[in-house]
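#dry-run=false #mode=assembly
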Amino acid sequence: MVNWANFVSQLFNGLALGALLALISSGLTIIYGTLGVLNLAHGAMFMLGGYAGYVAFTYTGSFVIAVVAGSLFVALVGIVMERVIIRHFYGRPHEDQLLVTFGLSIVCVEVVRFAFGSQSQLVPPPPLFSGITPLGFMFYPTYRLAVVGIIAVALSALFVVLYRTRIGMIVRAGIEDSTMVDMLGINVYRVFMIVFGIGAMAAGFAGIVNAPVVSLTPGIGDDILVQTFVVVVIGGVGSFPGAVLGGLIAGEIISITSMFNPGYAYVMLFAAMALVLVLRPYGLLGTRGRE
Amino acid sequence: MSDKINHYLGNVSRRALLKTGAALSGAALVSPVASFPAFAVGDQPPIGTWPAGSQGDTVFIGASVPRTGTYAVQGEDELKGYQLAIEHINEGHELVKKISPKIKTGVLGKKLTLGVADSAAKPNEAVQAQQRFITENKAVMITGGTSSAVAVALNKLAQREKVMFVCGISGSNDTTGKDCVRYGVRQNFFGQTAAAAIAPVLIKEFGKGKKVAYMTPDYTYGHTVTKSMQDFTKDAGWTTVTNQISPLGAPDFSSYLLNVANSGADILINVNWGHDAVLSIQQAKQFGVLDKMKLVVPYQVPFLARETGGLMAGVFAATDYWWTIEDKYPLAKMFNAAFEKKFGYKPEWGAENAYISFVHWARMVEEAGTFYPPAVIKQYEKEETIPSLVGDVNYRKEDHQAIRPVIIVKGKQQKDMKGKEDYYDVVEIVPGKGLMQKPDEFGCKLGDYT
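#status=ok
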């Protein structure tokens, strides 16, 4: 017997969960699409954004400054990481890239653990968005509603950058064929650096925006990374719209399944990924050959 | 380098080498008897890491605790308990002597060294690390836990390798139930005793015929604690309206909490542990669930009150230890003082468990007069009443579970707190004996000594 009030609540919650996954995954997918590097440190970028924002919040008490500081800090970390380490791995096998990014992820997590300890840290939501909002069919935390809006704005901004600007055009061209872009006289390595910075920034932004929803721990990125990969596989690697669609699908699968049997929520998520891999290995909105 | 080796070998004739070899092997044959005359090694063949692990001046203990992942905070706490226990045993601290009068310095005069590995609360990582401690370091005992999945896996490793596993923290009924082993012992409280202790308090407080929503982590600990709570509240007419099972380390609990919010429950019994408990309680607040129903934590989590920032106020929980019981138990007072001096805060039950289970093991070895594992196990099985930090306790011979009190606490309102670590009122200290199931009720078969 389906409880319809609960069903609608879960449908809505799936959207909120999916929006967050979409934002993190879009960073991961454009990095992979352009650079060909599967960045296992992406979860750590999400975590770093949260902690950098937390530090900024502690000193200033302003959530807006926390969001700006968290995002910019992670963008900077991303650019430095790309310049100093990642670029040496473009020509090397995927296994090496996985190992180096996995290593970087461990370093980031342990540095944060060393500095802040394992106990969780709280970033309260801004006063404007605290409390609970009645939606008629359900009560929903006001801040989570705001997160859906904030992420929609962020995804739109990312869309504008990717589809309406010259640098976006170059990035998309790089995803299609980076060798050709290089041959056309565009400094493809500079593009790679920018893409890595933007991708990391998307994760960092999501990290601080999500901080009031969860409490921050050094391992927070590891937990979300697995789901992010599932989203990218479902949506199609290198596809920005795919990441958004995949994120929403993943959010809905987790929410709706948990209504019927919470023990199977994650099982169904992986089952969906397996199904996509069998029927459409390049993902729902991906391009054949890119996987 | 190779020149150097040749140089040394060059001076040793083949005949001399043979002679030395013969003498060495002869010495190896007689040495155990010579160095351990009291142990009657003659009729005790080597077993596990015995006697190799205890022939030197020091003995090695392997500890695997989660230092990363969902249970990291509690793992660090557990580790502090081990570190303090080892320090106290090695220096012959007054507290240790009260628990084990025969200890002078070290155990049987041998200093203890601790090897620590991060289990991340994952059974395979814990087993790999402990296997290494056994094989390479000849660990005479292994300890740790925090996740019951890890505890059950280490039980099996201990029985296979014939090296004792002294469980640090594990809440599942299975650890000394269907997955019990001869080579494993557990000191702390578990699903059955937690539920048996807290259920009457809850029924008295909230009344009969309540509708309950459960939140359960999806492994042996979660399932057995939830089952025990359901069993002990059944007769009072409490019914389960929903049971939200989540994976260990779930990044978000919103969908589970929506189900709870829409379930019409009066009471939310949250069995999640570690950071999962912190996050699910914080998010329950965000979703307004805590305004709709009463929260209960049947298996309390060290540092939960501190980490949830006031959300435990008014919440009932069962635990092994809360520092304010020191007024009643002098050994607890000594422990609190020593712990606070070393680490700068009041100990919670993870550290207390680690400490006391470790010192109990040291006592058993001292009383047995040998590290020979079957003799140490038989010492536990004598069911002697021995001191602990919460009064006298004993280990049950049929399943190696300690019979010890369970403490029911209730979170204080912030205005009532005297000092920043005064999070709970002790509601009741329930004696252990009446809380235990029959020894064979959970299917325990201990297995062989050798």
